Amino acid sequence: MTDKFYITTPIYYVNDKPHVGSAYPTVAADVLARFYRYSGTPTFFLTGTAEHGTKILQSAEKAEQNVEEFVRENSAKFSLTWGILGVAPDDFIRTTESRHEAAVISFFEKLKTSGKIYEGQYEGLYCVGHEAFLKPEDLNAEGKCPDHATRPELVKEQNWFFKLSDYADLLKQKISSNEFVIEPETRRNEILSFLNQGLEDITISRQHVKWAIPLPWDKKQTIYVWLDELFNYCSALGYPDGEKYKQYWPADLHIVGKDIIKFHCVIWPALLEAAGLPWPKKVFAHGFFTIDGQKISKSLGNAIDPVELAEKYGTDAVRYFLLREIPFGQDGDFSVKKLEARYEGDLANGLGNLFSRLTTLIAQNLDGEIGEKKASPREFDEVNVMIQNLRFHEALARIWEEIAWANKYIDDTKPWETAKTDVKLFTEVIDNLAALLYEIAKKLAPFMPETAETIRSALSAERIVKAEPLFPRLK
Questions:
Q1: Which end of the chain is more exposed for a tag (fewer CB within 10 A), N or C?
Q2: Quick check: bond before 250 cis, omega within 30?
Q3: 3-state DSSP call for residue 5?
């Protein structure tokens, strides 16, 4: 495996509430963190919230709330939602925390000594929704940001700059050699193509953004919020001297949305290089959901609350669907109809049926007792490799092949008949099926921790009873 594993999600803007699109990468990161923890690898899993910038301040004003109160309340919604979805991070970082601000200031002071920082005048089109500068070619025919349908502001101000243009060749070399890994390949190619067009220097400060961290050497300026946010990956570990920072940095994997790969695959490693810090090892960009064929948007009001889904279908059913339905890294469509089809077919009729049949056979024919736990009669260790490579849908499909095999085996062999004619053969069949189901639960544990624990507990009990349905039929 590896000597340690440090995984991060994007940090989420608190001007919005959690929805199924933000739950997707967070659940994926939790699956990987659980997988490595179960293997015995020292693991650190980070998520959190981004709380600075004009967009946040405007949202607080619109809500008629003090900005500190606004960010505190909305950050808590993310933390609560992740808990309900069974997500168990080792830390939840908020960019308004003093530990984060102190680490960012320390980093920027180090950056200032690199010789890569200079003062100049900047003019550009600023999209408040993205908290980022856009180029004219990024806009639609009406001159608006295509994601937010708003016209960006023309900003002209005196700022501090970072010599990003100095790092194009180094970035290309490390990405091409896979020393710095970007996946999936489409995103790697996108970054290489972007680098081939040449890099421009970037502004690292703003003159008129007040809800942000002050630039340490020029208090009239604040740190550009995207750069403050990127540093959460180090600040949460206690940069520069914390024990966790020494143990876990560099990150083994940043999971991000495909819309923010330039920040993570170009700007972030260049800043780290300038400060003499190690680069993250890998960035993986997931795809986006549409909802019933439409983009998730506030104006359409079609964002789906993952808490409501968990309350109706169960936490593990939601976790299963998110990672089974769509190959991680590709775009896909979410619909309640598809979720219910997976629930009924894969979960209730597949895994739930196998669990119910096996516990019933044991309770009714063996007085609830089985022999010592044995090795699974079937092997599917390729699931581990699939999980490590973020091929979650393939891993789950492979596990379900075993579930289908076991259900068919019961149909074909009719062990309830053998129980009356050959107890020894029946016992052997049941022991093998129990061993297989136990192994299925073990492989499922990162994805569906509650379900896996229910199965393991039931099969480990002194007296096995007919189990309650794992996935009750939908009403």
A1: C
A2: yes
A3: strand
Burial pattern 84-111, b for ≥16 Cβ within 10 A else e, equals bbbbebbebbbbbbeebbebbbbbbeeb
The C-alpha atoms of residue 178 and residue 282 are separated, in whole angstroms, by: 9
Domains of the chain listed by start with CATH number: 335-460 (1.10.730.10)
419-441 pLDDT, tens digit per residue, is 999 999 999 999 999 999 999 99
The two tokens of residue 410 are 């019961």
Residue 92 to residue 179: CA distance in whole angstroms: 29
Backbone angles phi and psi of 155, in degrees to 5: -110, 130
Name the E strands within 98-245. 117-127, 132-134, 153-162, 181-183, 202-203, 205-206, 214-215, 218-223
What is the rounded distance in angstroms from the CA atom of residue 153 to the CA atom of residue 249?
A: 37
Please tell me the pTM assigned to this model.
Answer: 0.93
| Residue partners of 266: CB distance under 8 A and separation at least 6 | 164, 167, 171, 191, 194, 195, 199
With cut-offs at 50, 70 and 90, classify the pLDDT of residue 33.
very high
